[in-house]
Each structure stands twice: as structure tokens, then as C-alpha cells.
Design goal:
Blueprint: E1 2-6, H1 28-35, E2 38-41, H2 43-46, H3 51-59, E3 66-70, H4 73-78, H5 85-95, E4 102-108, H6 117-124, E5 133-136, H7 145-153, E6 157-158, E7 160-163, E8 166-167, E9 178-184, H8 195-208, E10 215-219, H9 226-240
Parallel strand pairs: 1-10, 2-3, 3-4, 4-5, 5-6, 7-9, 9-10
Antiparallel strand pairs: 7-8
Helix pairs in contact: 6-7, 8-9
Length: 265
């Protein structure tokens, strides 16, 4: 199944676009989880929540909800993958409070961190085999066979990333699940994605993963509610292509725009 969601759910400009104007912000997670089956939590990157917060998120979401969690920047941007044991243990000690709601762990590397496959391997081997890990390198030196072998050996997914409606990563399949992040489209209003760009990603995923394998798709173009509208448009295109897709809001709940998205790239 393709699981479609957004990178975060607490954006003030989504009030009145996606969230009802009078809905208290403390109930936004419940509202979101009733309309999407997954979310990617980015704020853990900046400040890792306490375990009690993760436990509370589990209690507030339905049994089929899935939370992908971004690894703390302490490991990736401050330690830069050095001495990973303590940061990984601390992260897992808290994030596993989600229990069966815990989805993939997103490890996003700094754009100026050059390739170090050995350091990546030392980090990935610390994760239990039942925790999915997706890695998003952002320096071009990572695009080597050595990197790919580490990901395959540790059964970690290479994050497929898009910016300005184009892939910015190789489209490697390295394990039995996929992970796609869409950061910024080229359609109007900015930073929306157009039908052509979304259809291209549906096609790429379909050529690489089947419905028996989970593929996580997160829209990170949140300004103006663009992520909501584009997630709904993407899900409609995927369903039209015969793919199984997780729940998304009805087109009328997505805000300005419609389920087919804007024209253009």
C-alpha cells in the first residue's frame, strides 16, 4: 500500500483551510489522524520529545495510524554520525513510546556532510531489525556503490527526494519498503505540485514497489496548505493507476484546489 501523509500537522495557516476555524489546536492530531493514516514528525529533529509525548500520541490516534519520526539533529548535524550509540539509544528510548504506531525513522543528513559509508553503517547497525530506517543523504558524494551496499546490508531505505518537481536523489531500491519526500513543487500557487509531477511519482513508485510493500509518501510543502491539497491529488492519481492507497481527506476537506491538483509541473 502507498501510505500518504504530510510532514507535520501543526501549521497555523492550515486553520480555516484544513482544520475547522473553531477546532482547538489541542485536537488537531485527532482530526488529522481521522483523515490521514500517517504523518511524518519533523519537530523531533529540533527537540526530541519526552517518551510521555510519544505515548500520548499513540493514545490519541487510531490503531491503523503510523508515525514516521525524524532522527534528532544531535546525531546527524552535531555529532555528524560520530559516536552514534548514545544518541540512537536515547532516541529509541523515547520514540518507541509510540508502540505499534511507530513507522520508519527518518535519518536526514546535513547537505555538507560528505559520504562516510562506514559511519553510516555503524549508525544503522544500532537499530533493531524491527524498526524501519530511511536515510536521506544530501551531499552528492553519497551516490556510490559503497553507500548503496550499506543501505542494502542494513535493510534501510534510501529516501527518494523531490525538489522543484524533480528527483534530487538516485531512485535506488535498497530494501522492501519505499520512502518519498516531496519538498517543493513548481506549480502555482507556490509551493504546489502539478498533475504531471505527481503522476510521474506515481509511475516511478509503481515501477519499483508493488502493493504488498509499504511505500511512505510525505508532502513537506506545507505553506498555504499545499501539502494537504497535493497529498489528496497524489492519492487520487495513485488510485486511478490501480494502486492501493491509504485514506486521505475528501477533496472538499483539503482546502483551496481540487483532487486533481493544479496544472503544470
Amino acid at each position: 500500500m502507498i501510505l500518504v501523509g504530510t510532514s507535520g500537522w501543526q501549521y497555523r495557516d492550515w486553520r480555516g483551510r484544513f482544520y475547522p476555524a473553531k477546532l482547538p489546536q489541542r485536537l488537531w492530531l485527532e482530526y488529522f489522524a481521522g483523515r490521514f493514516a500517517t504523518v511524518e514528525v519533523n519537530n523531533a529533529f529540533y527537540r526530541l520529545p519526552e517518551r510521555d509525548t510519544f505515548v500520548a500520541w499513540r493514545a490519541r490516534t487510531p490503531a491503523d495510524f503510523c508515525v514516521a519520526v525524524k532522527m534528532s539533529r544531535y546525531l546527524t548535524h552535531i555529532k555528524r554520525l560520530r559516536d552514534p550509540a548514545e544518541p540512537v539509544a536515547r532516541f529509541l528510548g523515547r520514540a518507541t513510546g509510540l508502540g505499534d504506531r511507530l513507522g520508519p525513522v527518518l535519518v536526514q543528513l546535513p547537505p555538507n556532510l560528505r559520504a562516510d559509508p562506514d559511519a553510516l553503517d555503524a549508525t544503522l547497525r544500532l537499530f533493531p531489525t524491527d524498526v524501519r530506517v530511511a536515510v536521506e543523504p544530501r551531499h552528492p558524494s553519497w551516490w556510490t556503490d559503497a553507500t548503496r551496499r550499506v543501505l542494502e546490508r542494513r535493510r534501510a531505505a534510501l529516501v527518494w527526494a523531490d525538489r522543484l518537481s524533480r528527483p534530487v536523489t538516485p531512485l535506488w531500491r535498497t530494501t522492501d519498503f519505499g520512502y518519498l519526500r516531496l519538498h517543493e513543487g513548481r506549480a502555482r500557487p507556490w509551493p504546489r505540485y502539478g498533475r504531471g509531477a505527481l503522476a510521474s511519482w506515481v509511475r516511478r513508485l509503481g515501477q519499483t514497489f508493488d502493493d504488498a510493500e509499504p511505500t511512505y509518501v510525505y508532502f513537506n510543502n506545507d505553506p498555504g496548505g499545499g501539502a494537504i491539497v497535493d497529498a489528496v491529488a497524489f492519492a487520487a492519481l495513485a488510485a486511478r493507476a490501480g494502486r492501493r492507497v491509504s485514506r486521505v481527506p475528501a477533496a472538499g476537506e483539503a482546502g483551496p484546489g481540487d483532487a486533481t491538483g493544479p496544472a503544470g509541473g
